[in-house]
Write a structure and sequence with these properties.
It is a single chain. The longest helix is centred in the middle third of the chain and has 18 residues. The protein has 342 residues and is α/β, with parallel strands linked by helices. The strands form 2 sheets. An 8-stranded parallel β-barrel has the order 1-4-5-8-9-10-11-12, surrounded by 9 helices. Strands 6-7 form a two-stranded antiparallel sheet. The protein has one domain: Alpha-Beta Barrel (TIM Barrel). Helix 3 packs parallel to helix 4. Bound molecules: ligand PBG. The site of ligand PBG has 11 residues, from helix 6.
């Protein structure tokens, strides 16, 4: 005889709240919406170009005209902002990343076109030298070192040029010390006090950036640049709070934790400690990992994607940068959250 038959019935039954979709919906603590998403897009030279990226299935490099088309789609789906990442021709790269401050550069031309075509869409410009340096570092690299203060001066000028081109938000992603303060001062002195700063305040020296670097960089050095003298040690969390404190003091409006899924604890601590707008970046390697898992039949792509993005909301993120933003917004529009897996 099975012993279960003699058990006392439980007096508390949490399952009552899970018995049907209507009650699960009613008591759900967190939701994912198109309004939470930021879509990162790679822009490249040319016209009519939509070039797929082997390392990031489903993601393309777009020429400016195509970028405008997709930006309109994003806006129509309720996505509030996009982040633009330019693919720089090898011939324009040098040791100092000189092209980063050129107002006629690809990112700035993309911003101008977008500001005109989709004026209500938030435009985020990535501020770092790595797309422009021949060595792939985020700063000036001399005698085996990435030089902080020299880099910061260039970054502040780069931010200024990007803001003037039409970016509403500049997002320093380099992890140099003092760059948020220098950028705020440069913007304010140029009467660009409305330009927002989204600081990549907590950016780890992560293995998960591999596909991004191959999407942007040359085959020669893809994925291999050691950024541990400026990006954070994955072992540290207390240090993340200190980084955020400094960036807020220096004038950051929003702060980011990156990568996302392996650092949910850090997102939660940053949010609880500072109570400021906190952005999570589902980076290229996270996206690629989910795709590979789905392609191998380990799980359903859409379900795994939605679950991982919801995790960011649960951890306290206000906004999420994801390469899947458009497709997620489409799923949400067709009622994914309330009908799927009912
Ligand atoms: C560069 C930058 C990186 C990413 C965004 N901006 C890569 C790096 O630091 O090497 C990574 C994004 C991703 O992996 O999706 N400043």
């Amino acid at each position: 005889m099975r012993s279960a038959a003699r058990m006392m019935p439980p007096s508390k039954r949490p399952r009552r709240l899970r018995q049907a979709q209507w009650i699960r919906t009613l008591v759900r603590e967190h939701t994912l919406a198109a309004e939470d998403l930021i879509w990162p897009i790679f822009v490249t030279e040319g016209r009519g170009v939509r070039e797929s990226i082997a390392a990031l299935p489903g993601v393309s490099r777009l020429s400016i005209d195509q970028l405008v088309v997709d930006a309109k789609r994003a806006q129509a789906l309720g996505i509030p902002a996009i982040a633009v990442f330019p693919v720089t021709a090898e011939a324009l790269k040098d040791d100092l990343g000189t092209h980063a401050t050129d107002p006629s550069g690809l990112a700035c031309r993309a911003a101008s076109a977008l500001a005109e075509a989709v004026p209500a869409l938030g435009l985020i410009g990535d501020i770092a030298l790595d797309p422009y340096t021949s060595h792939g570092h985020d700063g000036v690299f001399r005698d085996g070192e990435v030089l902080n203060d020299e880099t910061v001066g260039i970054l502040a000028e780069m931010a200024l040029v990007h803001a003037r081109a039409g970016f509403n938000v500049v997002a320093p992603s380099d992890m140099m010390d003092g760059r948020v303060g220098a950028t705020r001062a440069a913007l304010d002195a140029a009467e660009l006090e409305r330009t927002l700063i989204l600081s990549y305040a907590v950016k780890y020296a992560s293995a998960f950036y591999g596909p991004f670097r191959s999407a942007l960089g040359s085959a020669r050095r893809q994925g291999s640049v050691d950024k541990r003298t400026y990006q954070m040690d994955p072992a540290n969390a207390r240090e993340a709070l200190r980084e955020v404190a400094l960036d807020l003091e220096e004038g950051a409006d929003l702060v980011m934790v990156k990568p996302g899924l392996p650092y949910l604890d850090v997102i939660r601590q940053v949010k609880d400690t500072w109570q400021v707008p906190t952005v999570a970046y589902q980076v290229s390697g996270e996206y690629a990992m989910l795709r590979a898992g789905a392609d191998a039949g380990a799980f359903a792509w859409t379900d795994a994607l939605m679950e991982s993005l919801l995790a960011f909301k649960r951890a306290g993120a206000d906004a999420i940068i994801t390469y899947a933003a458009l497709e997620v917004a489409e799923h949400l529009r067709s009622g994914y959250a309330t009908t799927a897996r009912a």
